[in-house]
Structure to design on (278 residues):
């Protein structure tokens, strides 16, 4: 497809399969391969795919351990002549490219891409165009992926989660992939999910945990997880942890977690009404 292609899709997850591929999954699959065969994990979206890729050797040798420490998920370098920029996080439209929109070096921002394969418009959806498309001075269209990440000194992009899944408290902004990695290190945790409840810019962060198997003493398990959270600067502000037997997920592939549904559960558990504690 070329840059003039139009799409009628709304902005969606900026990664293939609509959920990131964990280093653990890559390690498991790589063990089945022989010789110099590698697993390649492409990154993209309906509006721009593929734009970034990375091979398993580099992930397992260099970035896996950093992912587990909360650096984010390294997704690789831009493919071919694809251009990638990290811009300051905003939920507002951006009407033109200028230096002020770029995020400071190594700071988490929104991933923005430009290439021939990037669609220029949504079909009959001006609102979506305003939120996701930015023309530059040369008439090229940049696409805002709706994903957050940062650029390292080796030119690699580190994915930190969806923009609309970030949790903004009075003191800090929490990003799903780095935060959840800390809890996923616990041997009894199958997966975790960060959610925020309360008013914008004053949210209460909560973590939902889906264990590998039944937990005999749930209160003791939560105490362990709270201690784990307090020991790490990325998660030290989290005071509410809930156990969920099975996360609500997209039934097509059991990977895209519906965090909005978990946030609603948390709101009820914390007895929040109209965005404030009762």
């Amino acid at each position: 497809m070329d840059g003039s292609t139009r799409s009628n899709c709304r902005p969606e997850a900026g990664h293939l399969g609509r959920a990131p591929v964990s280093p653990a999954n890559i390690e498991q699959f790589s063990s089945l391969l022989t010789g110099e065969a590698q697993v390649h994990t492409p990154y993209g979206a309906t509006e721009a795919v593929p734009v970034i890729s990375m091979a398993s050797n580099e992930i397992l040798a260099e970035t896996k351990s950093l992912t587990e420490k909360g650096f984010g998920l390294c997704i690789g370098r831009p493919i071919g002549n694809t251009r990638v920029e990290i811009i300051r996080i905003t939920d507002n439209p951006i009407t033109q490219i200028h230096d002020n929109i770029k995020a400071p070096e190594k700071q988490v921002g929104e991933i923005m891409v430009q290439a021939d394969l990037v669609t220029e418009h949504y079909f009959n959806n001006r609102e979506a165009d305003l939120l996701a498309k930015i023309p530059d001075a040369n008439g090229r269209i940049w696409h805002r992926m709706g994903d957050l990440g940062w650029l390292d000194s080796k030119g690699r992009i580190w994915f930190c989660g969806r923009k609309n899944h970030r949790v903004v408290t009075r003191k800090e902004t929490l990003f799903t992939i780095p935060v959840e990695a800390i809890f996923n290190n616990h041997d009894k945790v199958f997966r975790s999910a960060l959610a925020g409840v309360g008013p914008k810019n004053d949210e209460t962060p909560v973590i939902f945990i889906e264990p590998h198997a039944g937990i005999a003493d749930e209160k003791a398990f939560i105490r362990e997880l709270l201690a784990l959270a307090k020991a790490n600067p990325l998660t030290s502000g989290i005071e509410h942890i809930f156990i969920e037997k099975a996360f609500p997920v997209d039934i097509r592939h059991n990977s895209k977690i519906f965090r909005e549904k978990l946030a609603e559960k948390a709101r009820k558990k914390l007895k929040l009404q109209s965005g404030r504690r009762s």
